[in-house]
Queue: 2 jobs
Job 1
Amino acid sequence: MAGIPTRGMRGSDLRMTTVARAAAIAAQLQEECSILIEHYRKKENFPPDVSDGPLVSVPPPSSQLDTRDKLWRLHSALEQCHSLLERAIAKEEEELGGEEKGEYENRRKTVKERLLFLLNHTRELLRAADGSSIFTPSLDGSELDDPATLFQLKWWVYRIFMEVKYWSQTAIAVLQELQSDTAKTPSKLSKRSARR
Amino acid sequence: MPHLPNSPTAKPNYSSVWLAFVLLGISAINTQAKIAITVPQQVSLSANFSTQQLSISWLGGEATTFDLIILRTEFNETVFYDTVSAVLNQDGGQHQWTWTSVEPLECTSLSVKVRSREGKTISEWSEPQILEGRDLPSNSVQNMFPQDRTVPVGANTTFCCIVDEGKEFKSILYGTTVMNVKRLSRRSYATTAVNQNISGQSGTNVVCLSNYPSRLTGAVIFVGYPPLLSKFECETRDLIIAECQWEEGRSTNLYRKNANHYSVNERDCPKRQRCTLSQWDGNWTLLAVNPLGQYSLTDSAEVSHRVHPVAPVKLTPVAHAWNATVHWEWTYSSYSSLALVCQVELASHNTMLGNFSGVGLRSAVLLDLQPDEEYKVKVRCGSQKNFWKWGDWSKALSFKTKPYVPDAPDVWMWMNRDNTGLVVWKPLTRRQSHGQIVGYKVTLWNSEENEQHTEILSPESKVLPVNLTRWASFSGDYKVIATVIAKNVEGMSQPASVLLRLIDDEPPALAQTVYTSTGFPLSWQHNDNSTCGYLVEWCNALCTRDCPVDWIRLDAGNTNISVQSADFQPGVRYNFSLYGCPSDFPVLTHRWQGYMQELAPSSSVRLEITQQGCDVVLTWEEIPLAGRRGFLLGYNVYISNGSQLTRLANLDLGTRTYTKKGLSVSIHKFTVKAYTSAGEDTGGTASIRLESCDGLILEILASLGMMTLLLATVAYFCYKKRRWVKKAFYPDIPEPKLPGDWFRTQGLLDVKPPPHSMVHIIEKPERDSSKDALVVIPEEEEDDGEGIGDEPVDTDEPQSLRYYNQVVDERPIRPRFPDSSVSSSSSVDSANTDVTYTGIQTSCSSLVFRSDSQCSSEGFQPHTGFSVSSGDRGGGYQPQMQPVALGGNLASPEPLVEPQVVSSGGYKPQSSWLLDSPTETDEKISPPPSLGSPTSVASTQFLLPDSEEHEEERRQPSSSAAAWFTNLLSSAKP
């Protein structure tokens, strides 16, 4: 895995490398997600200007959150996104899947794998910061209800894609902030974590 | 409602009573009628939302017809109103009628009322029963109906959108199409998609848009087809289990839950086009069902008629050189009693099929195989009786046959005219070699003397050079036979022999053959007496020695062949030779030549061009054979007009010269192109400058005549004007006027030569023969020889100078005899000049001598040739150089007289030729004795004016012109 420390590297260097990689993955995920959303929107003839509320439940953003809290919030959101995406794909296959897999299915699979890759990096970063096991947030119960109709399923899938895109963008911002913080004070994260 | 009127009388009245009874009866009848047309009771609604059907039931008394009215509750719009004959439910005594709504029943609330009807008698409407829609305020969320509907292609479907409470409806999209909308209620809007086309795999979305963009409401509809199947049949592989298959005649475009569901004999078939039944039923019914309908097919057969054998397994070969046996096994033991027909596919360079049959067949023998050959074999079988279909192919089995001795090679020969040649044979093909060839053994055998010579050659060899002349016993009568044997790992081939034939006669003439799509067609007459076969050989016609010959053998009786070879190249001439009895005693009987494809010649003729009189003659040689690339048909002769070629003639092949007449005097360029059937070559080109032919002699004669006339005119003019000419150009030199007291008188010097001052003129002095060379003027002689006017007139001057230089070499500069009294008297101060001319040789360029028209010393006249200039300063001539009189004999005792130098301010020499001669310079170490003394006025050089007299010269152009003219004449003399 990309985030596994390499022998001989200092802790701050490892974090820098992991953060940089995670940021790059997030950027890639964001781009792939944008393509997937556009593909799906055209496929389903969804109007471009519609949106809906978030599917992911995380604490609201606050200026009082420090970098680690932001990272945790990001990780939690990504975990939920991944869980939602897995369910959405399974449900979609069950209800709407055809015999042949096309471009859409391939892009969807790529986004899911990229999201998992990013998730592993954020987990690694959190582990490096906290040193303890990561609490995996649970999804809100209401969101676990499967869509009642096929249209709701499609709309739900679309919203999940939008959610993944949103959190990939957020990941880019958080990881960039983390990069700059790590560059300034390499041990800040771990020290603060120690205080927690 | 009718009622009984009150009677105003108290007494009973029979009539009144009767009337009362009548009225009562009528009233009773009316009352009875009222009771029969009862208002329907217990109206109840039962909705099937998926089918959009509303089942209405009521208790309707005795009435058999009912009026039904269905309204949209909110807008009180009538949706349905009709008189129906409701079905009476025998159990509950209820009437029931089912109505199918165009719109989904959820779209809006519906009110249903029923009344009884008997003819025109109707009851009151029942109390309205309301089927609540989803647009009630209690259901405030936005919604759309119907959901997840599956309809057949071409159907019409009405959708309704119920917008959020308090939100504003915008539009409904069917796919990407904005639909026309009808408002059903305050919050409900409906649209109908008509003649719906097939949808995508995930259905077609119908989207409801409101001014609440964050919430997207919609429905998905699938448009497809009901099932349609074909080719349903069942068969068995193991003679027990039935395997049924079918094909979908048309894709339903419905997937997952909407996809077809299949069953055979009411047993579910999870696979899409195949179903396996554990026993052979003999009759089968296939049923396919999807939301849009169902379809069924049937099949029936006996098991022995539907045997589809499995593939044979475990194929094993037993291979020999020329045949092999293939064995296999069957998966099911039941095949052992089954009569089978099997097909064996044998693949090598080509593929062959063979059929074998038998009960429980397990092997096949393959014949006519090739030794040392790779084969692939596979087998499939079918039921021999009641054949149903071929079974599956087995996996391919590869095997290789064993090697065998090779075939005898095909041997031929090529003989050169010097009795050397080649023994050639065709390399054995894989099919002929029967194994890896390890070498060739070639034996040359003289049958007469039983002398033989053997060589072992490598497997790659296909030719052996032979030289028959080195055979000691070789002569024209003896026959040498070459025998070739091929060897492989299995042994040696049969020997192949060829008689090495001598070239002893002239070959037959070559005939032309034209290549066709099948090759070069060759035909000949068959000799009935001959039982031999034929051999046709061919090779490149350019080859003359040790040619790489190719050949083909023909059986006896053949009279034609079409020779084809992959080696044939376009533009190459091939020679074909037909030999009879090639194996015994080859006899060359016919020869042909031809091109596979003729091309334009690659080289051009070498053109030579000459002028003959007024004509131009073109000649050229034949193009070499290598450059022809086709049969030459002739030549085209062109003349070049700038960049264009104009054809002058088309000549046949035998003509290689062409004469062009009537050309003008100019440069002409000719091109000659040889051509074949494929076109011309690039052409050989030559050009010529055509000289004038008719007017040339005339022009020369005219020029000569003109020149003669001109010279005659000049001569005549000079003769007529000789005095003027002399006066103008050769005026008499004035008498010398010596300064001082030398001359007391101003008159002409009366020279009376004293006895001691006599000029001795030696007419023909004896000259030293060695000096003749100095006297002779080769250039002048050449000039004479070339004739007048041939050379420019001003080119004589250097020749004169040269002449003088030669003269000066021998020029006596000072008196040779200082002790001579005569020579002592040659002082410049001496009034008496005693000059002795001995053998004077001088230049004819001197104007002085020229005026006398005598250039020889014999013609020298002292009074004119010896010019004595006056010593006066003014107006006289200053000598440019010393007049040189050559003494023919240096030993002559007569002194040379140096001319007096006339001091003059007039002209001075342009240059001193005396100084031009280094020899002379060397010799003239001491200043010449004539310096400061009057000397000769003879000069061949222009006289340039002194600088102080330049102005005067300019003022007197006539005199300058005269001087120029003088010089011109001077230089113009020969």
Note: The interface with chain B takes residues 43-47, 49-53, 94-99, 148-151, 154-155 of chain A (CB under 8 Å).
Job 2
Amino acid sequence: MTGSPHPPGPKFLLLQGHLELGSGLGRSNSWTCCPCISQKSPLQTIGEEQTQNPYTELLVLKAHHDIVRFLVQLDEYRFASAGDDGIVVVWNAQTGEKLLELNGHTQKITAIITFPPLEVCEEKNQLILTASADRTVIVWDCDTGRQVQKVSCFQSTVKCLIVLQRLDIWLSGGNDLCVWNRKLDLLCKTSHLSDTGISALIEIPKNCVVAAVGKELIIFRLVTPTGESLEWDILEIKRLLDHQDNILSLVNVNDLSFVTGSHVGEMIIWNILDWTVQARECNFWDPSPQLDTQQEIKLCQKPNDISIHHFTWDEENVFAAVGRGLYVYNLQMKRVIACQKTAHDSSVLHIAKLPNRQLISCSEDGSVRIWELREKQQLAAEPVPTGFFNMWGFGRVNKQASQPVKKQQENAPPCSLELIGDLIGHSSSVEMFLYFEDHGLVTCSADHLIILWKNGERESGLRSLKLFQKLEENGDLHLAV
Amino acid sequence: MISAPDVVAFTKEEEYEEEPYNEPALPEEYSVPLFPFASQGANPWSKLSGAKFSRDFILISEFSEQVGPQPLLTIPNDTKVFGTFDLNYFSLRIMSVDYQASFVGHPPGSAYPKLNFVEDSKVVLGDSKEGAFAYVHHLTLYDLEARGFVRPFCMAYISADQHKIMQQFQELSAEFSKASECLKTGNRKAFAGELEKKLKDLDYTRTVLHTETEIQKKANDKGFYSSQAIEKANELASVEKSIIEHQDLLKQILSYPHRKSKGSALCSAETEHAQDQADQVATTSNPDESADADLYTCRPAYTPKLIKAKSTKCFDKKLKTLEELCDTEYFTQTLAQLSHIEHMFRGDLCYLLTSQIDRALLKQQHITNFLFEDFVEVDDRMVEKQESAPPKPSPGRPPSRSLDECPIPQVFISVGSYKSSVESVPIKMEQELGDEEYKEVEVTELSSFDPQENLDCLDMDMKGSISSGESIEVLGTEKSTSVLSKSDSQASLTVPLSPQVVRSKAVSHRTISEDSIEVLSTCPSEALIPDDFKASYPSAINEEESYADDSEGAIHFQASISPPELGEAEEGSLENTLSQTDSSCCIGKESDSLRVPLSTPAPTHSDPDGVVSSPPQRYRQKDQGFHVDFAGENASPSRDNSSEGFPAFELDPSRLLASRDVSKTSLDNYSDTTSNMSSIASTSSDRTPSSAHPTGPSSERHKKRAGQNALKFIRQYPFAHPAIYSLLSGRTLVVLGEDEAIVRKLVTALSIFVPNHSRHAKPVKHWVSSPLHITDFQKWKLIGLQRVTSPAGAGTLHTLSRYSRYTSILDLDSKTLRCPLYRGALVPRLADHRTHIKRGSTYYLHVQSVLTQLCSKAFLYTFCHHLHLPAHDRETEELLASRRASFLKLNLGLVNEDMKVVQYLAELLKLHYVQEPPGTGHPTLRFDYVPSFLYKI
């Protein structure tokens, strides 16, 4: 993955809500985990009873001394974490064991990516590339912890990395775009592009890459060596100027399109082959005044409430983290089919789609939430108690709660995102998370911690298995006949 | 006929109600005399009331060649302890039974004096007149200046309780052997040093004499020797002889440690340690003081002087003190060991026995005992012991436990039990044998020993002591614990003296005679009792049968608590028998395996005599050891064995006792007068309130206080149950309050309910004032949190509310509790606010017993294979889950939330078992998404 810009500095939680625990103890019967509920915020909350939340066990991993910003999966059971302290730590996702600590960077790490071994290559070791603010890129062997190679000839900080496995090369994006081979020879580079630098890079067909530079999208084509010339080259093909503000996120959606999101909430879906706009969705920041919006703004002081930080996708939908909310955009219907305008207390930083129609989001408010995309039953679309399900639809629901049900149905999206669980553990902004099918969820945060969330029941079973295996190893297991 | 006092007593109560103050005084002649010792604070049950000393003590005496028997020192060194007890008189008594056949001199056929490395003798004797009974440990130290080079000493453990001495004989013997070995090791070094000095002197003298002779020879050319010259020549010759003799002695003494100390190794580690220390001392200070093995041969600092060849045995010279004899280093160590012994055996016999049983049983639960037991104490002691005295030959140990396990306060020395002790520690024995080559031959001929010889020996002994006509009762004697062959052959010693017979004899004797010697029993340490002997002694058999009842009870108990067997056996039989409660699922199978040995004597591998019918409890013991291996909860059987080798009491009842004393003086604030009274009444033997003991951290007092405070908590707060449930189910309980002392006190009290994660740390944090973090919940299961009213405290409260799903919060200031609902049946049993238990320590024990029961359930649940793994591939996870649920409900009898407790404990067990090495893994924070409720008073 490429390093996308994240808000710098630790964002410790705003301590909101009533802080009188003693009296709270005396009064309320059931506590809510969100401090905002007492403010009558529209934030959807879930009580302490979360039957669908499988994560009933957690393991806190401590190794970093500063914000942990990046997590990359290495294989089925390992992942690496990196952050502002410049170290990379390799972990075992099953046991939480710290496998390796890679020291080499002197400043914070700005991008990390895995470089899978070549099929034909003898050397099967998994490599990782890390770029740092000290203007170096280091290649690590994450099986041995060895520093394979280090490049320090950069003019600027590398902000994103991308590997084109097909060509066995990798690209680094800073103020310019450089192309490297596996041996870390510089193959070719572009001229200086911008002072802000490339914020995101993706690969698209026909040996092309898309770079997000400020408001622009630039399409480059790689010229590979042919029979005639052995030289590599990179050529700028096109600049796309459709965004009105800085592009924060850029992802491939499928073979046909890629999607970009900007700071002011524009989402554009592009044709991946001819780079034309397929669809555009800009009304995330619907200005219609909501009852609570005033309060929220006062409280949260978030001008960038609608910047699009992250995308994820599946076959049908693109999921966008827009400000504090979550939106589901259907590619076929070309419309938002479900949304949670205030899914979190503050900006959603990372989202991921799980196979089982579940969506996980993490936010600066320090929580991780698990959502489920559900078809809304039309018949059940009756006015729901305000303050609970009042945030679906495109606004005005609150104001027009008395409107006929029919009208609401027209406006209302056909699906809904239901909160099925939240994970409270970090005391500060959750920067990113990784989902392991077998081992659960790994979250990293500005509180320097990594938390491994596990399915307690499954872990219990695994431990039993281990126990009986050990018994058997010791020759102590005698099965009854 | 109804007498006047009866009438009064009968009518008194009614009158008392009406006119409490108008009670007619009882006529003087009818009044019951008060208990004569009441004024001294003694209770009628105290056996000590007749004795002249206030509690047990250790006496070291010497049979001085100058003044005869004399007491040297007592431990504790406090005149209050032995009071008016006549130490001189008692020294005389105990020294007079010294068997010491030790013989130094010129044995026939030997040209030089031979050092006899005599074994210590151990005798139990009583003085009914004085009300004193003693375990007496005789030993001999070498002194070049003493007659025959030997100085007889003895160490005596003196108690007013005869049963205590008899029942703790093995332990006493083992412990005193350690002390003795330490003394002797030091003594050998000192003796060798002395010999070397003497040799140097002699050498020097020889040189001088030689020179003088030469001069005389030269001066005298008349062809005949002057008388002076002849005298010189004679002197020279005697010096030469003396040198040879002393060299021989030195060789003997130096050769000893190599063949002996390794084998016995009673304090080999200590010895090594001491040697290290001695080395250091030697390099820094006067080398004469530090006798080190390496320094035997080089003593440059010593200046030889001219001496007389013939040593003068004069009575006016001052004999060396014990400290001089043994090297200060070793002497101090010995004193430490002795005071350790004193602590160890302090207190009532019942108490000692119970705690020994307790420890022994606990050790068998090595899978689960980390959960709730005071591992720190146990473990530290274990480690300490392993370090300080590793290969301890403890043939005397396991039998001691068998003795202990028969909690009848009666004198019996079950000789047969010693036999099985030999069986149960084969590894140790082998080791011992291997090292003691010089005894190997005898050992291999175990079965062919000649009883007659020993009988003679015994006869001699007994005659000697019986005929002395003093009021000494030799209750038991014992030869060395470390010499297998000897003790083995001593089996025959016991032949004419069945314990039962002797005991009754002793009793009868004592009732008749004031001044007579009663030999109650001789007690060979690890004697093997021949089969035929048992057959010929119905009384002994009867006795054993009576044990069988007890041990049956023990077996039952064991069957219901011993996890390894249950876990092992459960698989097949679970389905059928599980309808019984608790662990009964396996009892069917289990009891079979237990009872077989009871009825048929099991042949054992190290049994030289073939079949031995030992007391059943021994088999039980063995059976368990066997089961441990079989069930394989223990990865290394040898480790298990070694741990069994340690006597139970090494886990330290003394410590308990010590603190018990303390707790008596510093009775808890909350204990009411009733408990105060009862605590006084319940301690019979150990009456003196002793202040702080060096070895006893306040664990017992802690327990007592914790129990008391827990009891108070339970009575005071109606929501104690959900709070305790939180602790048991691994949900962190935060005790919130402003007053640190109150919070700490409650946290300490509640910590008795907190399951441990490993043996190394209790997950309890007594006092925190900073905001809590997620890692705190992972690490701590009980936290005392400061409530700060200042704005800074807001953060603390905020995080608390943020992490509320991981915690239960007990607010001491507003007296509220916020935690999940509890509807189980377990906690009410554990913490009944209407309980009649009044004393903290009693409540603590109650909690321990309930929790132990709980542990066994958790164990069962954890180690049931079919509950966690599918029996075949087609079984789904759902089926397993339902099977688990029904097991918990139907078989373990758990309802509602109790299941979660067992499940949590099971997870801890799994983690602990799987981890390599145990206790090192990451603790995970487990939690449930369950709603919390607020409880108020």
Note: Chain B touches chain A through 60 residues (CB under 8 Å).
